[in-house]
């Protein structure tokens, strides 16, 4: 559902993969590219930049258990500066990520403080 050009999704639209999993955002030549949100079947959600159907650029990944990662992505993996928050333990890791692995970080236990993420864009 959305904008089409030359029989391909181009511009803003929504792609339903099934009734519980869908993407809403920008497309280029049938691929998720630009800014968008992906709602996964398991309840997780990614909001941020995409390139060539992969999370790429700045983004925020929410996990259904309350944990979330906010930072840089490269070809669908956490890569560059980012922070990962563990909801149950109230731990926050800020640091550099390489190929989905945290390589150097600063660890903070937030105790009773609430962790806030950056404001999301409205679709």
From TrEMBL:
SUPFAM superfamilies found in the cross-reference section: Histone H3 K4-specific methyltransferase SET7/9 N-terminal domain
Alphabetized Gene3D superfamilies for the sequence: Histone H3 K4-specific methyltransferase SET7/9 N-terminal domain
Claim: Protein biosynthesis is one of the keywords in the record: no
A GO cellular component annotation in the UniProt record: acrosomal vesicle
TM helices/strands, residue ranges: none
Keyword Repeat: yes
Keywords attached to this entry: Cytoplasmic vesicle, Repeat
Cell compartments where the protein resides: Cytoplasmic vesicle, Secretory vesicle, Acrosome
Role played: Assembles a suppression complex (suppresome) by tethering SIRT1 and MDM2 to regulate composite modifications of p53/TP53. Confers both deacetylation-mediated functional inactivation, by SIRT1, and ubiquitination-dependent degradation, by MDM2, of p53/TP53, promoting a proliferative and cell survival behaviors. May play a role in the regulation of spermatogenesis.
Name of this chain's protein: MORN repeat-containing protein 3
Organism expressing this protein natively: Adineta steineri
